């Protein structure tokens, strides 16, 4: 009886302190493993940030204020340093040169993602491209994404983006306090049309709820350190670990829910193709060609779903971050008005053709992306071969992080790095894509779209969305903080979790004049009457 009690007590302890217990077990296993397999090259690993025994920096990944810590380490250790979480080594790259060299020039071996049994294999069924290791399925999927998202295709989508941007302006006139949701509606509607051919005219609808349910689950599995098995992948097949952990069950249920949503979108499109009501869209082309491309139906449905996932919240949170950042420097709003009045005037709204003549607005886009990369940690790649960089050994299977919190806040390149100063880009001639292709990494604007073979496939589409909406918002509206609602411009102003999505905040958005308001309303009324026609777009299979 007493022995039984002791065992139950132990079991309860293990269940309640599961993360700690698994780390301790992992620690012992690691020590034994290290002694047996000592490799002399490990003397040349990059400098290590000291941490607690075994746990090391695992808990850093649970912290909301990782960016200042990551920046501080870069200041202390220089271009490259190392941390550990569980048994995994993280190599942090803190200079544009190192990211250029490893992610871009050596992309043949730095384009993978680390093993994530929970996030990738179970919760995703191996079908989420952003988490996929560098393998044949990734290459096939990436080739499909590539064709949908070329610069030329992005040009074609301007019809859709222009139309949705007009609705966004009128939504802002009608319900300015809901700007946060309007930006989200805009981004979702553009991607739904490209992918499935249908619009999202209202934010409050089942399609949006479903996609945000998917994103909510994605955040839960994606958050570094959240799942022990993703910190110590060797546990995935460990019978003792699996006796205590329900990760497989949770992972499967996440996958089944996401799969049901992506298959519902896919099947709805299929039914509309069968009854002849489907709009022209990329998904329609993929429905007839996925088998030829070596994909099964579920993979094809997840490619479509993947576009929604990768393209909607990234774009809308950048737009919402822009509003917050612009409020941190009201002078930037005045300068934007001045530029738009001079170049565009008040008798028409800005168009895509104005982009080259609006360097301050382009600067607003770049400055937002510099200050608000999409997560609080960095851009993670994984190397598939042992490698050396400047005398440092980088073991195969490391998580190699582009530390954008160091690179994009380097005071030598960006004086007053925490300030939103779009003017610093006035003489910068390159688009994000051109900048990413420059051989000298120090000339790149920012690394917020990632790098190498994994670089954001949708950056051309994203850039156009950011430009047109920021230009229109600045052209048509004044923006100001609201008395009694203090704003937090620091990283603490972001929602909990790994993303840099701002917490909802208040902002007074008012039309600049009756003339501006009338123009925005008239052009939306006309656009609504004419409808949107993108039948000219040719998606290749
Ligand atoms: C402001 C908006 C956006 C930002 C900041 C952004 C950023 C990123 C980043 C950092 C990555 C990972 C890159 C890497 O690992 O090196 C990525 C991947 C990706 N993005 Fe974007 N993105 C944005 C919008 C979009 C849009 C609009 C689309 C599609 C329409 C899109 C499609 C993708 C896809 C398909 C991938 C996966 C690439 C792969 O793993 O091979 N993104 N994005």
Automatic annotation (TrEMBL):
Pfam families linked to this entry? p450 (PF00067)
InterPro entries attached to this UniProt entry: Cyt_P450, Cyt_P450_E_grp-I, Cyt_P450_sf, Cytochrome_P450_fung
- Is Metal-binding one of the keywords UniProt gives this record? yes
What family classification does the UniProt entry report for this protein?
Belongs to the cytochrome P450 family.
Name the residues that bind heme: 456
Cofactor needs: heme
Entry keyword annotation includes Chloroplast: no
Query: Membrane spanning segments where?
Result: 12-33
Q: Which GO terms describe its molecular function?
A: heme binding; iron ion binding; monooxygenase activity; oxidoreductase activity, acting on paired donors, with incorporation or reduction of molecular oxygen
Protein name as annotated = Cytochrome P450
UniProt xrefs under PANTHER family = OXIDOREDUCTASE, PUTATIVE-RELATED, P450, PUTATIVE (EUROFUNG)-RELATED-RELATED
Keyword field = Heme, Iron, Membrane, Metal-binding, Oxidoreductase, Transmembrane, Transmembrane helix
Gene3D superfamilies in the cross-refs:
Cytochrome P450
Top-rank taxon = Eukaryota
Which organism is this protein's natural source?
Saxophila tyrrhenica
């Amino acid at each position: 009886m007493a022995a039984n009690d002791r065992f139950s007590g132990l079991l309860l302890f293990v269940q309640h302190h599961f993360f700690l217990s698994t780390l301790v077990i992992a620690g012992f296993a690691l020590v034994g493993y290290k002694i047996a397999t000592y490799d002399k090259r490990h003397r040349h690993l990059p400098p290590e940030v000291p941490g607690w025994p075994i746990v090391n920096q695992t808990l850093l990944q649970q912290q909301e204020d990782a960016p200042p810590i990551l920046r501080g380490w870069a200041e202390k250790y220089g271009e490259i340093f190392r941390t550990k979480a569980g048994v995994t080594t993280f190599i942090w790259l803190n200079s544009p040169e190192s990211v250029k060299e490893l992610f871009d020039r050596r992309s043949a071996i730095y384009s993978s993602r680390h093993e994530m049994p929970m996030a990738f294999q179970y919760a995703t069924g191996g079908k989420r491209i952003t988490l996929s290791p560098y393998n044949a399925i990734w290459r096939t999927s990436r080739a499909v994404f590539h064709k949908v998202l070329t610069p030329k295709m992005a040009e074609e989508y301007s019809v859709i983006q222009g139309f949705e941007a007009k609705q966004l302006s009128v939504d802002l006139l009608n319900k300015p306090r809901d700007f946060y949701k309007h930006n989200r509606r805009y981004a979702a509607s553009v991607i739904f049309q490209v992918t499935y051919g249908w619009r999202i005219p209202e934010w409050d609808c089942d399609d949006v709820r479903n996609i945000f349910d998917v994103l909510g689950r994605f955040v839960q599995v994606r958050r570094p350190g959240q799942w022990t098995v993703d910190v110590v992948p060797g546990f995935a097949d460990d019978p003792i670990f699996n006796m205590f952990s329900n990760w497989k069950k949770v992972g499967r249920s996440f996958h089944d829910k996401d799969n049901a949503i992506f298959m519902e979108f896919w099947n709805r499109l299929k039914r509309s193709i069968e009854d002849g009501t489907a709009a022209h869209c990329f998904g329609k082309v993929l429905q007839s060609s996925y088998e030829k491309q070596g994909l099964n139906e579920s993979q094809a449905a997840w490619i479509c779903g993947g576009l929604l996932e990768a393209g909607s919240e990234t774009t809308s949170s950048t737009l919402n971050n822009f509003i917050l950042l612009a409020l941190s420097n009201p002078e930037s709003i005045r300068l934007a008005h001045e530029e738009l009045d001079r170049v565009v005037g008040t008798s028409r709204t800005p168009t895509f053709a104005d982009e080259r003549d609006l360097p301050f607005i382009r600067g607003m886009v770049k400055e937002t992306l510099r200050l608000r990369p999409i997560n609080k940690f960095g851009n993670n790649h994984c190397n598939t071969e042992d490698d050396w960089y400047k005398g440092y050994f980088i073991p195969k299977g490391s998580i190699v992080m582009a530390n954008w919190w160091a690179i994009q806040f380097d005071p030598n390149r960006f004086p007053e790095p925490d300030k939103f100063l779009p003017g610093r880009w006035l003489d910068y001639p390159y688009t994000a894509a051109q900048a990413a292709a420059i051989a000298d990494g120090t000339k790149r604007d920012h690394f917020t779209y990632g790098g190498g073979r994994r670089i954001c496939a949708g950056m051309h589409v994203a850039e156009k969305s950011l430009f047109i909406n920021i230009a229109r918002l600045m052209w048509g509206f004044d923006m100001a903080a609201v008395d009694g609602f203090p704003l937090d411009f620091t990283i603490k102003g972001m929602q909990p979790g790994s993303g840099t999505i701002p917490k909802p905040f208040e902002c007074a958005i008012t039309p600049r004049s009756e003339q501006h308001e009338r123009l925005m309303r008239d052009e939306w009324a006309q656009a609504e009457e004419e409808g949107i026609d993108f039948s000219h777009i040719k998606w290749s299979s």
